[in-house]
Specification:
heterodimer, A: alpha+beta, Nuclear Transport Factor 2, Chain: A, six-stranded mixed β-sheet, B: alpha+beta, Rieske Iron-sulfur Protein, Naphthalene 1,2-dioxygenase Alpha Subunit, Chain A, domain 1, nine-stranded antiparallel β-sheet, four-stranded antiparallel β-sheet, 33% helix, globular
């Protein structure tokens, strides 16, 4: 077992999350997509403390296939809501390893403050994030990502940025 | 604005842009359209037992929908009869009474004033001075479990108002093996900077998908077929279906009825969307349905292919896919839509999983599909602010509509804009009626 307070592991994970945020802010979305495992899920729950993505709706609940559709859509010349793409800053903080085992996935908690600008409008998002990371031959990969927006239950205008 | 000038805004094949942009007209709409029509509130399953309640809006009027101890559903204006504070801040719950935060005035689930502090401080009982309690919305009725209310004392009964659109609500309920549906799975609340009419005009507009949804259609077309039973399948199929060739849309049925209602039929079926007709869960569902209705009855229900139905002016629903959207106008250029999913009671849980997967793609606030609709509503609102041209052209199919059963009409083609012209005919009636 690797301890949750393993400094080396935490540093590796922090660098991974910063890299993920950098890819999103640079619009390198194919590379971002490449961070996910084939069986990954990308989940933005609708409700606070939502237990389940299959019996309650979600702002996003994508398997790998839907996530690919989502990312691919941006490349179409008539992706009306996504052209121009929002410019973003993903500020990742409070990284903590929740659960780590030598052979299994690592659960990582973090906070996200995201500033988004598109078409004369700036929006700020705050979220509690949980990654389930898996070690592969190419390094860490995302097996599951859950993003709990603090305003997920609010009346919200359409959301096109990626968290 | 006088009646004559309102009449001038709606012509047979066009409307003046002011109907989308003028704040004065919006105020009149709140009084004359939303203040008169039957408005959908939700469903009886949201207030199943005495004391159950939920809060919503009727137009801009904040209301509490409660199940009173006598079993009746009451609709109360969410405003303390004392000094005006909102008395209920919770979206939904169960309670014996509503207590105002300001001075503790307390109301029963029928809105009646139960008690107040220092009751002897008044020349005559305070309850008498304030009319008994929370203001009650005068008319409340249900159709097949769907709750409606009207802010007007007088008007047609609900059944007359819905008219032939009742068949869409029938379809919604008949699909349940137990003959009952219930709200479940959370509510999306999506908003846009645009007039409330834009979303109602869009839901029966069959020409828009090829253009508005071009990017999600294109992205979905590149996906190989998924493994049997994949969660993503219903969403990907919906995106693909938006790219159906013109003959599909031309041959879609598009009906309109009195009071501005409309619906589309003969469009989707479960095989196009979920590939589930052969799936064990679907076979189990069909068997459950047959148990109640017999094989012929079940075949009739499953053969009814309805897409969006619109109960003007605040409701759009999909009976076949268990989605219901309530339109809340906030300002002339601001609208919020609440989207609910329903569970078919007695159906296998897998059916509900598909409903949720479908709702995420069709009504989700970050949906690859819905976000493009919202973007176009906003661009439309901005464009309509331009003074270069005052008229919005709604002439597609005009003069070719066909009369049909029970006083309905249908577009000769499913791509007709007959539903929008029909909405404005109702709008004009509401806006120019004397009382």
């Amino acid at each position: 077992m690797r301890a949750a307070d393993d400094v080396e592991l935490r540093s590796e994970i922090e660098q991974f999350l910063y890299h993920e945020a950098w890819l999103l802010d640079q619009g390198r979305l194919d590379e971002w997509l490449g961070l996910f495992t084939d069986d990954a899920t990308y989940w933005i729950p609708l409700q606070a403390n939502q237990a389940d993505p299959l019996t309650t709706s979600s702002i996003v609940y994508d398997d790998r296939r839907l996530l690919e559709v989502r990312v691919r859509q941006l490349r179409h010349p008539r992706a009306h809501a996504r052209i121009p793409a929002p410019r973003t800053v993903h500020q990742v903080g409070n990284v903590s390893v929740v659960d780590a085992a030598e052979s299994g996935d690592v659960r990582v908690g973090s906070t996200l403050v995201l500033v988004e600008y598109r078409r004369e409008r700036q929006r700020v998002w705050g979220a509690l994030v949980e990654h389930r990371l898996r070690r592969s031959t190419e390094g860490l990969r995302i097996a599951a990502k859950r993003v709990d927006l603090v305003n997920s239950e609010a009346e919200l205008d359409g959301i096109v940025c990626l968290f | 604005m006088n009646i004559q000038s309102i009449k001038g805004l709606v012509q047979p094949d066009r409307v003046h842009r002011a109907v989308y942009t003028d704040p004065t007209l919006f105020e009149l709409e709140m009084a004359r359209v939303f203040g008169r029509a039957w408005l959908i509130l939700g469903h009886e399953s949201q207030v199943r037992s005495p004391g159950d309640f939920f809060t919503t809006r009727m137009g801009r009027e904040p209301v509490i929908v409660t199940r009173h101890t006598d079993g009746s559903v009451r609709v109360l204006v969410n405003r303390c009869a004392h000094r005006g504070a909102r008395v209920c801040e919770t979206a939904a719950g169960t309670t014996a009474e509503f207590v105002c935060a300001y001075h503790g005035w307390t109301y029963g689930t029928d809105g009646r004033l139960a008690r107040l502090p220092l009751p002897d401080g008044y020349a005559r009982p305070a309850g008498e001075s304030i009319g008994g309690g929370l203001a009650r919305v005068p008319r409340v009725e249900a159709y097949r479990g769907f709750l409606f209310a009207s802010l007007a004392e007088h008007g047609p009964p609900l059944a007359e108002f819905l008219g032939p659109l009742r068949t869409s609500f029938d379809d919604f309920v008949e699909r349940a093996p137990d003959g009952e549906v219930e709200v479940a799975g959370g509510v999306f609340k999506h908003a846009y900077q645009g007039n409330w009419k834009l979303v109602l005009e869009n839901h029966n507009d069959t020409v828009h998908p090829a253009f508005v949804h071009a990017s999600s259609i294109w992205a979905a077309r590149q996906e190989p077929a998924a493994a049997e039973g994949a969660y993503s399948e219903i969403g990907v199929r919906q995106m693909l279906q938006n790219g159906a060739p013109w003959e599909v849309w031309e041959n879609t049925g598009l009906w309109v009825a009195g009071y501005g209602h409309s619906w589309m039929a003969d469009y989707h079926d479960d095989s196009r969307l979920v590939a589930a007709l052969a799936h064990p869960a679907f076979a189990e569902y069909r068997a459950a349905l047959e148990q109640r209705l017999g094989p012929e009855g079940a075949a009739r229900v499953l053969g009814e292919l309805r897409w969006n139905s619109i109960a003007y002016p605040n409701c759009s629903f999909m009976s076949q896919f268990r989605q219901l959207r309530v339109v809340h106008p906030i300002a002339v250029d601001r609208t919020v839509v609440y989207a609910y999913s329903f569970r078919l009671r007695g159906a296998p849980e897998r059916m509900f999983r598909d409903t949720i997967a479908f709702s995420n793609v069709v009504n989700g606030t970050a949906s690859p599909v819905l976000t493009d609709d919202l973007e176009v509503y906003e661009r439309t609102q901005q464009g309509l602010g331009a003074r270069g041209s005052d008229w919005v052209f709604l002439g597609r199919g005009q003069g070719r509509d066909l009369p049909d059963r029970e006083g309905t009409r249908r577009g000769r083609s499913g791509t007709s804009e007959v539903h929008i012209r029909n909405q404005f005919a109702a709008w004009l009636e509401y806006m120019t009626a004397e009382s």
